[in-house]
Structures are given as C-alpha cells and as structure tokens.
Amino acid sequence: MTTAPERADRVVLLNPGPVNVHARVRAAIGSPDECHREPEAQELLGSVARKIAEVSGGGPDHAAVLLTGSGTAALEAVVSSVVPTDGRLLVLDNGHYGERLLRIATVHRIPADRLESGWANPLALDELDRRLAAHPEITHIAAVHHETSTGMLNPVHALGALVARHGRSLILDAISSLGSEELDVVADHVDWCVGTANKCLEGLPGISFVCAPRERFEALESVPARTFYFDLHANYRAQVVASVPQFTPALQVLRALDTALDLTLEEGVAARGRRYGARAREIREGLEKRGVELLLPPHQRSNSITNAYLSNGMTYDELHDGLKEFGYVIYATQGKSAGVFRLANMGQLTEADLVGFFAAFDTVVARHTSSHA
d(Cα 164, Cα 255) in Å, to the nearest integer? Predict the structure, then answer.
C-alpha cells in the first residue's frame, strides 16, 4: 500500500500561469498607496516599459505599452488597432489560442482569413509562403509562439523571416513564451509582441503589454480607432510620448512586475530557459517512467509545459481533485484535447516541489486503482 505523502507547505501551481512567484515579487504587491498621476507612478511606467523592451530583445527604438488586464487584453488591443481599414489579417491556427486570435478579429469585424494546421500539428509555413505570394491584400499575420493548449512551440524565427521576406507585418502572441523561450523581436522580425506579467516573467496577474518599434506605434495615427480603452495609439501617445497613463493602471501589480523584471534580467532569459528546461525534463521523465504517454514529440515541446494523456482509467477531475488534496494544482485542456492534462513548470518551482508532486501522483493513482479493482 502506498504511504500518503505529506501535504505541500504551499499551493504548488503546475498550471500555465498564474505561477508561484519569488518572495520579492510578493512583497512588492504591498507597496504603499499612491496616485497614478504623480511623478513616481510615471517613473514606474517608464521603468517597466524599458525592461519589457530589453527582455523582448528590443532597443531604444522600441517601446512598450502597458495595459491593466490579462494577456487577452493586450491581444485585443493589437488586433483591433493595427490592421488598417483597407488591410487584411491572416491568422495561423494550430491550437486554441490561434482560434482566439481569429475570434478577436471577428468581433471587431476585421477582414481575416485562417490558415489552419490542426491542433498539435506544426504551422504550415510552406502554405503560408504560397498564400502570401498569391494574396497581396494580406497586410498582417498573427500567430502564437507557445500554443499552450497543446504545449507546442512554434518556430518564430522561421516564421518571422518568411513574413518579413514578403513585406508583411507579424503580430506574435508571446504570452506564454516571453521570459523563458528564445525570442528576439529584432532578429525574429516581430513587429507586435504581446506578453503578460504572470507567466514566464513570474509576476502577478493583472498587467499585459505590447512591445513594438516606436515607428510602428507612430504609424497607427492614420488607423481609425475601433475601441476606446484598447486604442493602442492613444495609449502609446499617453504613456510613451506624454509619460502619463491613459487610464488608471494597477500600480501595485506594476510594482510587482517591475521587481519580477529585475529578477528576470538578473537571471537572464537564457538561464531561466535552462532552469525551466531542467524542470520540464524531470516532469517528462517522471511521467514516462510511470507509463504516461506525452502528447508531443520532443522537438515540438516548449520548456515550460507538458501535455500528457490521462491513464489508468482516471478522469481529469479525479486526477485534479486528488492532487489538489495534497496541494498540487494541475490544468485541464480545451475540448479538442480531451483526455489530456497539462503540467506547467513556470515560476519558482523547486526540485522538492516535483518530488512531492510525484509522491502525491502515485498516491492518487494507487487509490484509484484499488477502488476500481
């Protein structure tokens, strides 16, 4: 009989954001009350934006616009703001978040097409090449870097080079990749990079952002606004040009993000990627040792999430609820990945966390097996 493990001394988040954060980040959320129109808050906006540009690979000619909202807020700001009235968007779709990009465009009645590869299938770059050559009316391409619905890491460098060769503009959802995966907005020809605080940057939920060359932001002046709050050009003119927020930001969350970005830069994105990669290997080896099949082949996986098939006749709810009893939170998948669960290793996870997780996993499986014997 398996001995029940002790409950973790904290809730261990194995979901793809929010994540377990550093103590310095958690302490920063308790910063004093302040007014967003004061110089200290304006300095904070500038500090966070500069660090985001640095983490993204941008230089002095890049800027970042910050939004109080989840990553989807920044995605909606970009998609609704950058495609001109005579433009057309092509969405590359190989998972749930590719589908979401198309849904955003549809809501705003932006002319859009879809190049669908199918869930857990690589992006069809050869077909994209042909499509762009045949359709000069397409002005923008939108894609997801890390498609967390399957755990697939899409080839942003090859994609960016292809889009740039055709003279089009690339919108990249880097929400689940920025801070741990290889990404350089200049070298990868990313015109609009979208990210969020609470995943691989290891901040807290509530802030998202758009990083782009300043000239791209300036050029939006000629694009009629489709929204009020998410008007990217208006937010750029306020935050970057006038150094004041357009609307009231979540200042305490920004303080936490500022600290999280300091920690990211101190560690280095490449080093964080190696740390995440080591944790991912531990998870994958532990699952495979237990006979659990993984969704993707090794060369398609990111370094921060593992999608695996449910086994032993267990449902997701049985596995989730059993693990949560011991303090470990896993994540479900969307409908098209039925029978699969997700384990993320973003954030401040330790080797002891994973040892404890697998002890709990073994206990939950053993209980299920004995109850169905």
Answer: 36
Domain boundaries, the chain: 12-16+268-371, 23-266
Identical fold between 12-16+268-371 and 23-266: no
Degrees (nearest 5) of the Cα angle 148, 107, 183?
Answer: 35
The residue whose two tokens read 């909606």 is 76
Question: Looking at the domain 23-266, which fold is it?
Answer: Aspartate Aminotransferase; domain 2 (3.40.640)
Confidence category of residue 223, pLDDT binned at 50, 70, 90: very high
Judge whether 252 and 30 are in contact, CB under 8 Å. Answer: yes
Output the pTM of the full model: 0.95
Nearest Cα residue to 195 out of 298, 328, 346? 346
Based on its alpha-carbon atoms, the radius of gyration of the chain, rounded to whole angstroms, reads: 21
The number of angstroms, rounded, from the C-alpha of 360 to the middle of its chain's C-alpha atoms is 28
Give the CATH fold of the 12-16+268-371 domain. Answer: Aspartate Aminotransferase, domain 1 (3.90.1150)
For residue 353, is pLDDT > 80? yes
Q: How far apart are CA 65 and CA 49, in angstroms?
A: 7
The structure tokens listed for 311 are: 């086994």
Q: Indicate the pLDDT class of residue 8, thresholds 50, 70 and 90.
A: confident
CA-nearest of 297, 296, 300 to 342 is: 296
Distance in Å from the first CA to the final CA of the chain: 14
The encoded tokens of residue 302 equal 């990111």
Average pLDDT over residues 151-175: 98
Q: What is the DSSP string of 339-367?
A: TEEEEE--SS--HHHHHHHHHHHHHHHHH
The tokens describing 57, both together, are 């690979």
The answer for residues whose C-beta is within 8 angstroms of residue 10's C-beta and 6 or more apart is 20, 327
Q: CA-to-CA distance for 215 and 300, rounded, in angstroms?
A: 34
Q: What percent of the chain has pLDDT over 70?
A: 98
Amino acid at 59: G
